[in-house]
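Field: COMPLEX_INPUT
Field: COMPONENT_COUNT = two
Field: RESIDUE_TOTAL = 443
Field: MODE = joint
Values follow.
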Amino acid sequence: MKAKKIKVNKTALTIWILALVLLLILSLIIPGREKEETIKEVMKDGVLHEFGRISLFGIKDVNPAYISSSIVVLVLLFFALLVRIFAFPKFKLIPGKFQSLIEMAVGFGSNLAKSNSPHKNGILGAYIFAAAAYIFFGTLFELFGVQAVTVFGASISLPAPLSDINAAIAMGVTSYLFIMSGGISSNGLKGVGLTLKEFSLPISMSFRLFGALLSGLLVTELVYYWITLSFVLPVLVGIMFTLLHALIQTYVLTMLTAVYYGEVSEPQTKKNKKSQPKLQAEN
Amino acid sequence: MPLNIDFQQIFLHMFNFLLLFGGLYFILYKPVKDFMDKREKHFEELEKEVQDKLSNAKASELEYNEKLKQADEEIRSKKQEALNEAQKIADTNIERSKSEAEKILAKAKKAADAEHDRIIEDAQREIEELAMETTKKIIASSGSAAYDEFLSATDTEGSR
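Field: COMPLEX_OUTPUT
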C-alpha cells in the first residue's frame, strides 16, 4: 500500500514539473503584447487614477478604488448577513471553530477599545471592528485581481480601496470625526478642544494609510510590468507583502483611533485629580 | 486639486464606510457582542455560585471543626471528671478498706491476746495441776518431811 502511494506521488510530481517547464517555455517564446503605456505612465496612473476611471452606473466616472470599496462593503455586509441568519442562531456556550473565529474578530475590536479607552468604549469597539474589517479585507481585495473596464474600454485589475488617496482621506477624516464625537460625548466643548489639539491627526492618518497601501501597489505594478519578473517573485511581493501590510495597517489605524479616542474621552476632572499626586511624587 | 483629490469621491468613500460600520454593527457586532457578554455573565454567575458554595463549604467545615473541637474538649473534660470520680471512689474504697483492715487487725490482735492470755492461764493451771500432782506423788513416795519442806518452800515463794 505504501509503494502505491509513492508511485502516485511521483507521477503527480512529474506532471507538475512538465507543466511548469512547458508554461515557462511558452511564456518566453511567445511574444507579449506591445506595451501601450510606459512604466512612468503606469506608476502615475497607479497614484492618480486620472485615466483608468470607471463609470458608476453612468452617473459619474469614479476611481477604480471606489468600485473596489463598494464591492468590499457589499461582500462584507452580505457575509455578515449570512452569519447573522444561518450561523448566529446556532451559536453555543462552548464555541466551535467558526464561532470562535467570529468571536475573535468581535473580541479584537472590543478588547482594543476596552484596553485603550477604559472610560467609554461601547461604540468604539464597533468602529474598530468595522475599520479593521474594511482595511484588512480591502487590502486583501487586490489579490483577487477583479477585472473592470475603464471608460476608455481598457481592462484593469481593481486595486485596494485605500490605495486611492480619496479613500485614505475619507478613512482618516472619518476616524478623526469619530474621535471628536467621543470627546464631545464625554467632555462636551472641552472634548472638541482636546480633539482639535491633534489637528494633524486626520492628515497623518490619511497619508499613512495612503502611503503604505500605495507603496505596495507601486511595487506590485513595477514587478508585473516586466514579464521576466512575473515568475515566483509575485508570490512574495503580491501575496506576502499584501498580507503583511493588510495586517499592519489594520492594527496601526485601529490602535491609533482607540488611543486617541481614549485620550479625548477620559473625564478631565478625574485626570487632574489623579495627575497631581504623580507630579508631587516626581518632584 | 493636487493628487487627484476629489471631495465627491471622499464623501462617497465615507458613505461606503459608514454603511459598512452601521451594517456590521447592527447585523454582526452587536448580536455577537451581546451573546459574548451574556455568556461571560453566565460564567461569572456560575463562578460566583461555585465561590458561594465553596465559601459555604468552608464555613461548614469550620463549624464542623469547631464542633469537633468542642466535642473533643467535652470528651476530655468528661474523661477527666470520670477519672477524678474514679480516683475519689478508689480513695474512699482504699480508705474504707484500710479502716476495715485496721479494725480486723485490732480485732484479731484482741482475739490473739485473749487466746494468748487464755493459753497462758490454761498453761499455768496445767502447770499448777501438774505440779500438785507431782508434789502429791513425791509426798506419797518420800514421806511427810519432804511434804512439809515443800509446803514451807511454797509458802516462802508465795509470800515473795
